[in-house]
Amino acid sequence: MFRTNLIGFVLAVSSTAFIGSSFIIKKKGLQRAVPYGSRASSGGYGYLQEPLWWIGMLTMSIGEFANFLAYTCAPAVLVTPLGVYSIIVSAILGNFFLKEKLQKLGILGCIMCVVGSTVIVLHAPGEQNINSVEELWELAIHPAVLLYIASAVAVVLVLVLYLEPRYGQTNIMVYIGVCSITGSITVMSIKAIGIAMKLTLVSYSNVSHFKCWVFVMVATSCIITQLNYLNKALDTFNTAVVIPIYYAMFTSLTIFASLIMYKDWTGESASNIVSILCGFITVLSGTMVLHGTREPDKLPSADYSALPQISWIVHANGEIWKQKDNDEECVAFIRQDHFK
């Protein structure tokens, strides 16, 4: 058990270096893609013409593949919280390449994240034994899992169809909510695919099973949705805000979904469970400290020099209003009770 957890730990930490870097590369790509048309935050796809964005996608793909392998070796309650290292990587790189200054107190946040993740690793539960795709399918169609998936789909539809047109550009929780909810379902499906592939290597082929391809289709659709809304969030809001909130929501929902489907904590002692929760809270606290010490986006200063010079003449009786603009006169007659 410890050996497989260690392999999962190494793979998960390795993946965070690529994923953390990809956030910065894609952000730079989104910034450089503005001349190509509508921005991602406005529903445009001009960034697809920017090579730097594709480099970021390739980097993220490498990281996600390593993450996928980590999920096949270790439980989600171990692998998912280790994503905090991607926040540390993006914070350091963002300080240099995006000019998102990291304050000295942010170092404390990084240390808290490392300490919390270490506690989680030391007390992480072992993998449950699953011997066939049929067992995976039985876990997936459990009423509790179906209820979670139905609730997740309902919330995502409300966010996309109702809240996004109204609050998407001003409330970060709309985009991050879609990313986090679909991400939790992605992890459930990806882990099932990984287990099926692992079983194929040690016994007969499980990958060709129809039920395995159901997991593939669910994972693919969720990943596409997740990436689309993550691009919108990165293009609209500061990376220093997006990544910590996304991490906190995604990790919490993923651990909750994994507990429902894979029952990772079955047979674990109360002390182990409490230790893992304490480690997770420490990681979340470090994430918030790291986020709180980052500088927000600077609002562009308004340039009023290009605006026309306007002069107003209002007679005492309130009847005549005259505007002078570039030596042109415009006279308007106003009713006496206009300002009443």
Structure commentary:
The protein has 340 residues and is mostly helical. Helix content is 67%, strand content 5%. The chain contains eleven helices and three strands. The chain has a three-stranded antiparallel beta sheet with strand order 1-2-3, with no helix packed on it. Helix 2 packs across helix 8 (172-202) and helix 8 (172-202) crosses helix 10. It is globular. The model is unreliable at 299-307 and 318-325 (pLDDT under 50).
Number of strands: 3
* Percent of sequence in beta strands: under 5%
> Which word captures the global form?
globular
- Measured on Cα atoms, how large is the radius of gyration? 26 Å
Supply the number of helical segments. 11
Biggest sheet, strands in spatial order?
A: 1-2-3
Mean pLDDT: 78
Low-confidence stretches: 299-307, 318-325
Q: Structural class per helix/strand content?
A: mainly alpha
Helix-strand pattern, N to C? HHHHHHHHHHHEEE
Measure the end-to-end span: 80 Å
Main β-sheet, in a few words? 3 strands, antiparallel
Name the helicity range.
Answer: 55-70%
